Each structure stands twice: as C-alpha cells, then as structure tokens.
Amino acid sequence: MAKHSQPQPAGRKPTHRLYRVVGDGENASWTPIGAAWPNKDGMGFSLTCDAVPLQGRILMRAITERTEARGGQQ
After folding, report:
1. Which of 40, 36, 27, 34 is nearest to 3 (CA)?
2. Where does the pLDDT of residue 65 fall: very low under 50, low under 70, confident under 90, or very high at 90 and above?
C-alpha cells in the first residue's frame, strides 16, 4: 500500500510530533503517527495523522533537535 502524505501548512514546518504510546515508563513503546502546527491565532493546533491508533494513547511533543548524548525517546 502506498503511503500518502498529508498536506502541510504552506511554508511552515511542524512544531510538534504526534506519537502513539503503549505502556508506561521504560517499557513504553513510542510510534510516530503525525505532526501538529499552531494555528495563526495561537488558540489551537492543526493536526495531520498518518495513522489513528485503536489502543494506547496519543502524545504530542514539541520537536527538538536530537543529540548523540540523548538516548531514547523525546
């Protein structure tokens, strides 16, 4: 099945990443499922999802640069 990408707000990169998280603590499994952009009025976010989980929870995290010193999930 071909992967279709969702439209993004023109000229803007996402500020947050969406994850499906199953489990807790060190045993949690994180799967990236989409992205989010703040609305122009600052009152909410526009979301795009490549998948919608039926189990676990959806977590939205600010996108930060990873460094080699940082291990694990964001």
Report:
1. 34
2. confident
* Tokens coding 22: 């199953």
Largest Cα separation within the chain, whole Å, is 38
User: Is residue 39 within 8 Å of residue 46, measured between CB atoms?
Assistant: yes
Given a contact cutoff of 8 angstroms between Cβ atoms, the answer to whether 9 and 51 are in contact is no
Domains in the chain: boundaries: 16-62
Report the predicted TM-score, pTM, of the whole model to 2 decimal places: 0.72
Q: What is the number of other CB atoms lying within 10 angstroms of the CB of residue 42?
A: 7
